[in-house]
Amino acid sequence: MVGAKESEVVSMNTLTTNLHLLFASFYRPTKQRYKIICEDTIFPTDRYVLETQIRFHGFDPNKAIIEVAPRKGEHIIQEEDILNTIIKHGEETAMVFFGGVNYLTGQFFNLDTLTKAAHDVGAYAGFDLAHAVGNVPLKLHDWDVDFAAWCSYKYLNGGPANIAGIFINEKHFGLPRLGGWWGHDKETRFNMKKHFSPMTSAEGWQLSNASVIGVSMLKASLDIFDQAGIDNLRKKSIELTGYLEYMINYHANKLLQIITPRKVNQRGCQLSIKLVDTNYTVFDMLSQAGVITDFRKPDIIRIAPVPLYNSFQDIFYFGEQLRRVLY
Ligand SMILES: *Cc1c(COP(=O)(O)O)cnc(C)c1O
Hints:
The chain folds into two domains: about 5-225, Aspartate Aminotransferase, domain 2 (3-Layer(aba) Sandwich); about 230-325, Aspartate Aminotransferase, domain 1, CATH 3.90.1150.10. The protein has helices at about 15-25, 45-55, 60-65, 80-90, 110-120, 210-230, 230-250, 280-290, 310-325, and strands spanning about 10, 35-40, 65-70, 95-100, 125-130, 145-150, 165-170, 255-260, 270-275, 295, 300-305. The chain has nine helices and eleven strands. It is about 35% helix and about 15% strand. The strands form two sheets. The protein has a seven-stranded mixed beta sheet, with helices on both faces. It has a four-stranded antiparallel beta sheet with strand order 8-9-11-10, covered by helices on one side. Strand 4 (about 95-100), helix 5 and strand 5 (about 125-130) form a beta-alpha-beta unit. By secondary structure, the protein is of the alpha/beta class. It starts with 8 loop residues before the first strand and ends with a helix. It binds pyridoxal-5'-phosphate. Pyridoxal-5'-phosphate (PLP) binds next to helix 1 and helix 2. Pyridoxal-5'-phosphate binds near residues 15, 99 and 130.
C-alpha cells in the first residue's frame, strides 16, 4: 500500500500520537537547524504537532514553521515554490513535512522530489499520508522518504479512530526513540527483564499491544484491497475522477470551480470544488438527495469517488442532482 519493505511499516496507536512519536526520533532541533517547512493549509492537528513539538524543544513556532502558500489567486502550491523555500532556508531546515495529499485541495505532492530536495540541504523528509494511503500510488522506500504516518479510517476503511500506521526508512532503525514493551525484541519481550532492547524494524517504535477488534476490522479491509489490486483501483480511480471532473464542469461551469490539480499525477480520487457566486445550500441539498460529500467552511465541497465502492452510475446520478440543485 505504501511501497515499503515489510520491516519498515507497523500498525500502532493513532495518527497524531504517532506523529509525536516520530518527531521524538526525527525532530531534534539545534540552534543552527530547527526549521520545519510545510504547506500553509496543513491539517490543523498536524500544525498543532509542529507548534507543540517546536515549543517543547524551546523554540519559537513563529520562527521555526515555514509555510509554503499558493501564489496569489491560485489554490494549489507550485512545486517550484516549495523547492525554492527549501533552498532558501537550507541549513536551518531540520525537516520538510507535508501532507502527501493535501486534505483540503486534494493536491498530491511529488514526494520523490520533495524528499530529494530535503536531503540536498541535509534535512529529513516526513509525510502525513492520511489522505494518500489507499488513494494514490506510493513508493516510500524507493523515494527514500525518512518517515511517514497515516490513519486507517479514510480510504482504508478501518473504522473511526482505528489503529494507524507508520513508515520508518530502514536506514533509521537505530535512531533514539520513546520506547514501550511492545517495541521490545519479541524473543525476550515476555521475560519481563530490565533494559529496553528494541526490534530492529519499525516494530521497535511500538509502545503498547493492540486492540484485536481494531486490527481485525482493518485486516478485513486490507484483504479487500489485496483482492481488488491497488493498480486496478488506481486505474478505475483515474477514470472515475475524470468522469466526475467532466460532470462538474459540464453542469456547473462558472458556478463552481474545481481547485484540485487537473493533472492526474497530482491528485487522487478527491475533487475539491469552491462555490463561486452560487447559493451555499448546495451541500445540504446534495445530502438530502443521498449524495455524501463533505463541506469545509467557508466555501469548499470535497467529493471523493472512491474506486472500491463508487460506480460510474453514482457519478452520473451526482451530475443529475448537481444540475437539479444549481438551476
Ligand atoms: C484525518 C487526519 C488526521 C486525524 O488524526 P487522528 O490522530 O487520527 O485523530 C490527522 N492528520 C491528517 C492530515 C488527517 O487527514
